[in-house]
Amino acid sequence: MIRKSLFCIVFLILPFFVWADNPLRLSVVGSITAPFYTGAGFDAALDGIRETEAVDEVIPNPIIGFTLGSGLEYSFNNFFALQGEILLAGAGGGYVLVDNGVREAHLISEINLDIPLMLKLNKELEKGRSVYVMAGPQVSLLLYESEFVQDGHAYDKHKNSRDHFNPAGIGILTALGWRAPLDNVETFLELRYGREFSRSLKNSGANYQNVIGMAAGLQFRRKGEQS
Amino acid sequence: MKKIYLFLFLLVLLTPVFSADRDEKDWTDEYSPLFLYGLGLTEAQISNIALWGFNRYVTQADYGMISFDSMRTNLTNPWVWDQDEFAVNHMGHPYQGALYYGAARSSGNGFWSSLSITALGSVSWELLMETETPSINDLIVTTMGGVSFGEMLFRLSDVVLYGEEGTIDNPGVFRWIGATALSPMTSLNHGLLPGRPPEARDVSGFSSLTLGYSFADVSFLPRPDSILKANGFSLTYNLLLDYGSPFIKKGQGAPFDWFSLRTGAGLNFNNELFLTLFTAGHLGGWTLYGKKDHVRNQLGFYLHYDFIYNRIINLGANSIGPGWIRTSQRGKWTLDTRVYLNLVAMGASDLIYLKYNDIVNEPPDYERRNYSLSSGVNLKAGLYANRDRKTWLDLVYNGYNLYIIDASVPDSGAGGKEIIGSLDLALRQKMGKNLYLGLQGTIYHKESFYHEPLLDIDELLWKTGISTGFRF
Question: Is residue A179 part of a domain?
């Protein structure tokens, strides 16, 4: 199934590379993100924790994550482009146990390899600047996972079994961005939102990884290319 | 806490005003001040995120485990005087501030707008990027120390890259490495915004190595027998550096077009680290000419960051105040005097009771600072004489009268007053083309007058030695 999907993606993209005479542009991108889990299964899991731990409340608590990687943009014209990326991503989610005002945060931390492929719609502004939106599918591969549990000012690390996590996820990544030229590179700022359609945690019913992020990066121009 | 947020709001509100102080530079004409301010602020935040990412994902430090819940807690709880180690607060935070400042300054912003970016970088770090409660002392030290360090490193980075005349067009790889080590964000912006004219001035001073002997003594006051003595050989590297000319006319020049830096690093007392740093950076002032020829006076305002770190006496002081610099010539003698009277916005010095309790009996299992936080006044006076540029004599005293902030007193500590000072005497004689031999002596003293139950205490450390080095 995965092989077929990859073949279809390559088959669909390849003609655009062959037909177009515009250059490829390489970029580096990093972001700070707020990953969190949603879904009826996750809510039910939190209710279960509240009952078993006998605490006042269990509140969802987005953790703070990151993405860091590089991208490749292929412009069909000034309006349309296709952008693929390969990103190391700190994702996951969390919750807080509240009992008599004492808070105990649980940070479920995943390190993933994210590979999004997005269609980019670009609107040019004055001074070589532009705004754009991007959206497309994303594959996430789980590399590493752990959980940090708050104990006062300290956080104890627990290594959860990989059996609790799905090793791969399929979702969508969207972005709203602004790009401005500097001397010989383009800078960009983006607001990103990603959501997985497959379940992240295996034994928690319907639960989905969500990530909101603020990204910044540099896109390198082809030699001799003007902004 | 409301005052902090009001301060933050005013910074953002005044951004366009701050941004207007950007020096006129053709290279940035195509970018608006707001764009450059945004670029500097973004880079400062990227440095924050990089540091947090290292803490959170590489070292997995407790204070890096941030989440929405920790941010909510920090935003709604009052700011505190934090309990972090001396080196973290008074070396680490100024350097962190220098990264913010370097990002802002090298992306085309002037001194004052870079200062506001540094403050915003510190506020966002305190509120959002660590689980620890935001601290007032961190904000002051990161901002004031960061501006001092940042501007000096930014300018020295340009001197290393382009030379004192700023005329080196194609710097070699070693110049790039040196400049990047001094100010990484400046090198990043050389790539993003090439063509910035170098901010380089003449740099002069001494570089020397001193081999000598050190002695330390701690007594209760009034001084009975010593309660702690230590001595041993010491090896110290000293750098005395002046950047630019201190005589800057009103309305001409920019902040830190002149600065002075006196630093020393070495080992003594069985390989213990010994560090000192005294800086003064010109913010603005007036050049006055004397009635006689070859006499010049400068009245101005100066920003200082001072630091002493050794086994007995530690000091961190961020201060600002007026200063008077005078140079005169008589025959073959040149005489420079420098006098500064400052307000110490944030001072810090060890509580030796807690410091030695932590060493001997181990610190408590909760985080507890072993030094006091204070404010007060500072007098710095220096006399620098040379005869025909062959014989040099320096006599410098730095004194600090610090009042411990009662609200900041750590567990088992006490409020009170601390008088700290250092007296330096150095004599150098030219022996060869550019080789100098000399004698050097330094006395550090600290008298602490604590509230009950702690007893008053006197700390003294001196070191003396033979030095050799060169003038540049």
Answer: yes
Q: Is the peptide bond before B222 cis (omega within 30 degrees of 0)?
A: yes
| Confidence at residue B453, expressed as pLDDT on a 0 to 100 scale | 86
C-alpha distances in Å from residue B239, one per residue of B181, B259, B402: 17, 14, 27
Average pLDDT value over all residues in chain B: 89
CA of A81 vs chain B CAs: smallest distance (Å): 24
Same domain, B303 and B428: yes
- HSE on the CB side for A104, CA within 13 Å? 15
For the segment B266-272, the average pLDDT, to the nearest whole number, is: 73
Q: Quick: pLDDT tens for B383-404.
A: 999 999 999 999 999 999 999 9
DSSP codes, A192-203 = EEEEESS-SBTT
The angle, 0 to 180 degrees and rounded to 10, between the axes of the packed helices B184-192 and B173-182 is 120
C-alpha B254/C-alpha B259 separation (Å) is 11
Closest CA to B393 of B381, B379, B382, B378: B382
Q: B313: how many CB neighbours lie within 10 A of its CB? A: 22
CATH number (domain holding residue B294): 2.40.128
Domain range for A45: 21-220
Which residue segment(s) compose the domain that B275 sits in? 203-471
Query: CB distance A94–B67 less than 8 Å?
Result: yes
**Closest residue by Cα to residue B107 from B44, B149, B153:** B44
pLDDT above 70 for B422: yes
**Same domain membership, residue B346 and residue B285:** yes
Q: Judging by DSSP bridges, how do beta strands A80-99 and A102-124 pair with one another?
A: antiparallel
* Chain A neighbors of B52, CB-CB under 8 A: 64
CB nearest to A155's CB, from B39, B62, B367: B62
Question: Is residue B197 in a domain?
Answer: no
| Amino acid at the residue A199 | R
pLDDT at residue A156 tops 60: yes
In this structure, the number of other CB atoms found within 10 A of the CB of residue B294 comes to 11
Whether the per-residue pLDDT at B143 is higher than 60: the answer is yes
Side-chain half-sphere CA neighbours of B433 within 13 A: 0
ipTM above 0.90? no
What pLDDT does B311 receive?
79
* Separation in Å, CA of A187 to nearest CA in chain B: 9
Instruction: At A12, list the tokens.
Output: 């669909």
